[in-house]
Amino acid sequence: MLAELACFEQNCRARFPITDAIYNCPECNGLLEVRFTESKLDPESSKRVWRERRTSNQPLDQSGVWRYRELLPFDGQHQHVVSLREGNTPLLDGPRAAQYGGLDRLTFKHQGFNPTGSFKDNGMTCGVTQAVRLHRQRVACVSTGNTSASMAAYASAAGLDPIVFIPHGNISYGKLAQALEYGARTLQVEANFDQILALVRVLADRLGIYLLNSINPFRIEGQKTIIFEMLDQRDWNPPDWIVLPGGNLGNTSAFGKALRELCQFGFIRKVPRLAVIQAEGAAPFYDFVRTRGEFRSVPDPKTLATAIRIGDPVSWPKALHEITASNGVVEKVSEQEIADAKAIIGRCGIGCEPASAATLAGIQKLVRSGVIRASDDVVAVLTGNVLKDPDYIYRYHTGQLTDPEGKTLESRFGNRPVVAPNDADQIAKILEAKI
After folding, report:
1. Which helix (H) or strand (E) holds 233?
2. Alpha-carbon dihedral angle through residues 363, 314, 150, 161, given to the nearest 10 degrees
3. CB neighbourhood size of 394 (10 A)
4. pLDDT tens digit string along 70-81?
5. Residue 204: DSSP 8-state
6. Nearest Cα to 342, choosing from 331, 353, 329?
7. With 70 as the cut, is the pLDDT of residue 365 above it?
């Protein structure tokens, strides 16, 4: 399908060529999004083609993003695609999590099965592919972890020079290690995420670096495919709710856009409600939706869920539109609620990073308040792999996890390792006592 870049602001709607290397509208500084100018898709035949591609050995078909390329803005440009066979992430039932959250049933869409362990790969394959199309040699991002890992991998796979900017001392080493391993030049800046993003915007313009944070509209295009694949896996039967963590709100923007397009093009007739869950110490979007006054950033966001430690999310205008369009809600949860929910998800045999567990914590609150019914069909998106934050896991289960204010969190579902002597009889007693 033919596409263009368009200003998201209702009072502007300026349009630009799909090949312009811009992130905000030059006319009004509003956010940009990709808009399709024509659609020639037949929903039923497209669904059959996409299903058939699952068994294909062609590289594009093996990607859970590029399998749905007819709904991506790269017509005639597929020779530029940079793929690590991203997507292809499972839907997993979590019965213990459902019981904990107050639901009859709960399904997780686990993006931690991606090549670098997070949903960022869905967006980064499109973002880096656009960089190649524009003949850019250097790409950059500001990251609290997952974005840096993903960008470094995809940029290196494409032969580009990845540059990562991170807040000094505010990143999980499990994530930083990936960026280093994939060859990214890494700068630890003594500022928070939002301050560094403003700095990098200036550097990108000055040095011709292509920016790959979620403000990049092509990142959003790739992240749309999380919804395409989810619905394909459900035989195109939409759930009642899709619950996701809220940090920079790129996924909220992408999911809502995907659902609107699928409805517009006739793939679905029902649009699920979106529920965005933020951490209490980094919840500007929750505060804004609750008061509907002026949007106010959080100057010093605080949460152990580093993937959503964002105080000034650039995508909030898009996210607001998608929440409104889907009759969705926004909730916030505490550090204790996130930590406990994460342990419960683990007891389903499903590991995830802390930010992912905000979904289950939010579900529990929304069910208790009557917003979500126990019988509702709910899909919660887990954004990252369990090994992204291993120190968090160990500290929780051993009773050493402290919140950003230094308060020790309760290890309500802890699983502390036991020191045992080299004695079969003594170990037998320990195991019998455990039972």
Report:
1. helix 217-233
2. 180
3. 13
4. 999 998 889 999
5. H
6. 353
7. yes
